[in-house]
């Protein structure tokens, strides 16, 4: 029966635990145990299967940790101050251009200089007096930041996008749908286009009106950062390492190799002092290790779901209820939205949903391109709007330093509405026509 299917029950348990704010890693592990025990594996065997499955994401985990170290090194340099100065100089009194500029530069944090959300607490607080002066609605800024940290990895196979797209490639190939990285890149631009539409709606329609904020964030705390910073030799070495990291990715499409190359350049040319290497690596671990472990656990969870054999039964049941391609596409995207909202990680969602979506999509007769789009957007859905996601936690960390920006109502709700609805519509329509 559908209601006693181990896969379905374990997914429901995981979503409920995540929405109840249990630690994400624990929620995945408990849900994996539920699936294994319901199938009859027992606790010991379930743990063994989980650990064996985790090995499949070791490359991704190493990628996260190395990129985290690069982000930690950049945060210790003057590059961020340099960046803030020129952003402030460029936007000045250009009120409507402010959010577009922030979104544009935020995109670089996912590909050119892959620091992920680490730049937000450094960049945004010094700009709050300017935001207050121009009476810019911070909800629009939150949408701009979320766009910058999400749209690039959804769309482009560079930086964190290379990780995300490689996960899609690996999981689809594992589930008997042969695809290449070029196939994924050629389809996922649809997700990026839907997010661009959401960004424009947020800035020019829904959050365009001026909004008053109290000037409680003292000018003397931020004035020094608006002085033109001076680049030192170590800053150039850090920049060179970041550029090497980006350059190595293009021909090799190998994140661990490019991350290692970038760190070596930083160390050799003095960007990272020899005595500070341990501290930088620890900073990278603090920044990205938890996400890396979520990825490992998600892969192990997917392994248990696969070995229960209950996926086939679930696929048959859902296929009969979907009523065809339209219903199937909607169901898959809604389930992806719920899982990602709970997990808070698009990267961690893909291994979980691919086990179910690939055979279901084949059963419903979707093309290879449509399956790529459905899996990719189902994973991306919910990252914007999830209270547990870096895509929302990052913007709030920068915009709420003066306690005038609510995480749920000023970040999560606006980003949920502006991005998840367009992603859902573009995903369904795209899958039907591809």
UniProtKB/TrEMBL annotation:
Q: Does the keyword Transmembrane apply?
A: yes
Query: What's a single GO CC term here?
Result: plasma membrane
> For this UniProt entry, what is the primary localization, expressed as one broad class?
membrane
Q: Which residues cross the membrane?
A: 6-37, 49-75, 95-128, 140-167, 187-207, 236-252, 258-275, 287-305, 325-358, 370-388, 408-433
How is it placed in the membrane, per its record?
A: Multi-pass membrane protein
Na+/H+ antiporter NhaC-like C-terminal domain residues:
145-428
Query: Which intervals hold domain Putative Na+/H+ antiporter N-terminal?
Result: 5-90
Intracellular or extracellular location(s): Cell membrane
Keywords assigned by UniProt, alphabetized: Cell membrane, Membrane, Transmembrane, Transmembrane helix
Recorded protein name is: Sodium:proton antiporter
